[in-house]
Amino acid sequence: MLPVARKEFRQVRRDRRTLVMMLALPILLLVVFGYAASFNVTSMDVEVVGPQAEQVAGQVGRLGGPQGLTVDVVDVDPSGTARSAEADLRDNRADVAIVTGGDEVVALIDGSQLFTAQAAVTGLAQAPFAVETEVLFNPGLETAAYMVPAIIGLILVFIGTMITSLGVVRERETGTLEQLAVMPFHARDIIAGKLLPYYAIGLLDLVVVTAVGVVLFDVPFTGPVWQLVLGGVVFLTATMAIGVLISTLSENQGQAIQMALMVTLPQVLLSGMVFPLESMAAGVRWIAWFLPLTYWVAISRDVMLKGTDFTAMWEPYAALVVLGGVVLALALVRFRRDLGPSRRERRRLARRAEATGAGDGDAA
After folding, report:
1. Contact criterion met (CB below 8 Å) for 302 and 63
2. Residue 297, CB half-sphere, CA atoms under 13 Å: how many?
3. 125, 153: one domain
4. What is d(CA 315, CA 318) in angstroms, rounded to the nearest whole number?
């Protein structure tokens, strides 16, 4: 037994990447989970509209007192109406809109942000003024409506990151990558050819899982389908680019799985999929802006639950395009290095070799 154990220790010590992951990943998860795992919303944006907006706005700041909330009044508009307030909630300009005028004060709450909405309902129950609450976009504050759009993205992350990385690494292990290197293909052609099947499967899964979520869990789908499909396309591009990059950094499928999990787990914790971004410590919240799932969560919830217009939510689409482009460029550089000299470089080296051989013949 001891000789086998010593052999295994030596093997683990030689595999430094695995050793680092085994030691660093638990610490990373503990720190990230400790700072991110909180359902307590710490801030809430409120707008006040209607004829008595000025008077009510002065009392709004007291709503978060019992819960430790920071309530920010982002807009006070005496000319605003319930319709304009609902449009502002749909376009993510506020979490709560308080409409004054008439017989009573009405608070419209964005139900697509589940935990913020729950905090708002609790805070308004203790408001220093009489108010009627109305939850929009997820009236029953259903957990399924909040989670299913994000889970769709998680499924696409597994396909785009893990399956893609394993598919490319498999080429290296079987030796077919060297065969591709001698063929007249550019690195981008090889990557595109490898990704197209997974791309098609990912888009098919997007359609199937979304349909199942809508039918089985009664999740509303109020926005245009093309916006969700467009989000799926750019999101898959970014996640698959990460998968290709992982494959260029891995020597075998075991390492690819380890790195894919190391990339996927922070996305589950820090993307806003489970824990609201507003509840995270500032020291880890910034990591969310480098994770593709963060932007998918924003896109899917806005499209499915709220029907937000594209002009009001173009930022996450643009962020995914930039993020995917940068990661794909890095993956191409590394993949080209794995393939060896490019076709142009090989021709240049061949011409130099021919010239050198001709020179040697003349000298002889």
Report:
1. no
2. 25
3. no
4. 5
